[in-house]
Design a protein that fits this description.
The complex is a heterodimer of chains A (about 120) and B (about 240). Chain A is an all-alpha fold and about 120 residues long. Chain A has one domain. Chain A has 7 helices and no strands. Chain A is globular and about 50 Å long. In chain B, strand 1 and strand 2 form a beta hairpin. Chain B is elongated, with a radius of gyration of 22 Å. Chain B has 9 helices and 4 strands, in the order ββαββαααααααα. Chain B folds into 2 domains: about 140 residues, no CATH class; about 70 residues. Chain B is mostly helical and about 240 residues long. A 4-stranded antiparallel beta sheet of chain B has the order 2-1-3-4. Classes of the chains: A mainly alpha (about 120), B mainly alpha (about 240). Chains A and B meet through helix 5, helix 6 and helix 7 of A and helix 6, helix 7, helix 8 and helix 9 of B.
Chain lengths: ~120, ~240
């Protein structure tokens, strides 16, 4: 319920305002402190551009976040679909099993390093 | 939602909802407790949890006892069309038999837990579900749709919170999100090693980290917005 309200509110606010040009979006504390980008930096701006269907601008602000959206949606779908059939289970095992999770972790950490080089 | 606990004699597991309890391989001898019981009680002796066993065969050592006639009837009806899918759960029954179960007490519980975790990996829930239905044992209320749709498949692991962890990592609080992801991988690895309670623990750890991260992020965001609103927006960005 709370999550749904937040998502709805978020879509409106992030769709209407560009975080790059307004002051009331919270900046990343890691970036404020260190000057380096964290793996999530640019997500707010990317969402703004996505909601305005400007995919290229969104990708330029945070590639990882934009590319992970289908993965996140599919994962949430599998979580939600509780009596899970054999085929879906196989996909869940492949994409969200132990090895896949380590892969995700590795990708996030390497993205963190690479975007700061 | 009513909450249930069970123990292997050393640790307490839970709280579980009834649905979650169904996936915990509770046997007739497993000591359970829920509000309304005075003490830890073997699940087979509670009225409320009888429906759990609608999807699991009773232990084989009942064969010699009074309900023996019933039990052997069931064996016959099973052997009529026992497919490969049913084989593992019969082994599970045999293991239950090895664990002494005449006087269920805490001392015996660990053995039972070991037998359970050995079978968890191999024993498809479906195998036992179909047996329970054929036998018509107990209330058939729970031997229902959810298991029926997954013939021969293993039980599903507990929620790993992976999706939530990734969102927390990307949108607010990297350390909490990473901790959530690490715990998500533990959920999967422990579950597939047959350590269902361990997976359950990792799942609640993952939940703790992601939810902490989520709330910290939300509250920090609100405080920031309020501060900007009051301070008149002197910050850049």
């Amino acid at each position: 319920m709370l999550v749904m309200l937040l998502v709805a509110g978020g879509i409106i606010i992030y769709g209407m305002f560009d975080p790059a040009q307004t002051t009331f979006f919270p900046p990343c504390p890691f970036r404020e402190l260190t000057g380096l980008k964290c793996p999530g930096c640019g997500s707010q701006r990317a969402i703004h551009h996505l909601l305005n269907l400007n995919i290229q601008a969104a990708l330029s602000h945070n590639v990882a976040m934009v590319l992970s959206i289908p993965y996140i949606i599919f994962g949430a779908f599998l979580d939600w679909k509780k009596p899970i059939s054999k085929t879906w289970r196989k996909w869940r095992q492949r994409l969200y099993g132990e090895k896949a999770i380590y892969m995700v972790l590795f990708l996030i950490l390497s993205f963190w390093v690479i975007r700061n080089i | 939602m009513k909450q249930y606990y069970f123990t292997d004699g050393q640790r307490r597991y839970g709280p579980f909802t009834y649905e979650a309890l169904q996936e915990q391989n509770i046997t007739h001898q497993t000591l359970v407790w829920y509000p309304g019981l005075d003490n830890w009680t073997p699940a087979g002796e509670t009225e409320e949890l009888q429906s759990l066993f609608a999807v699991k065969p009773p232990p084989l050592d009942n064969l010699g006892d009074t309900p023996g006639q019933e039990a052997s009837d069931r064996e016959e009806s099973e052997s009529g069309d026992s497919g490969p899918g049913q084989q593992p759960s019969r082994q599970g029954g045999a293991k239950d038999q090895k664990a002494p179960s005449h006087e269920p007490g805490p001392g015996q519980a660990p053995q039972r837990a070991a037998a359970q975790s050995q079978t968890t990996g191999r024993q498809g829930l479906q195998g036992s579900a179909s047996q329970g239905q054929q036998a018509g044992f107990g209330g058939n209320r729970t031997a229902g749709s959810s298991f029926q749709q997954t013939p021969g498949g293993p039980p599903t692991p507990p929620k790993s919170w992976l999706v939530e962890s990734i969102l927390v990592t990307l949108f607010c609080c990297l350390p909490f999100g990473i901790a959530g992801i690490v715990n998500a991988s533990k959920v999967e690895s422990r579950f597939h090693a047959g350590d269902a309670p361990g997976a359950e623990r990792a799942s609640s750890q993952a939940k703790k980290w992601t939810q902490t991260g989520f709330w910290i992020g939300l509250i920090a965001g609100i405080i920031y917005v309020l501060a900007i609103a009051i301070g008149g927006g002197s910050s850049y960005y």
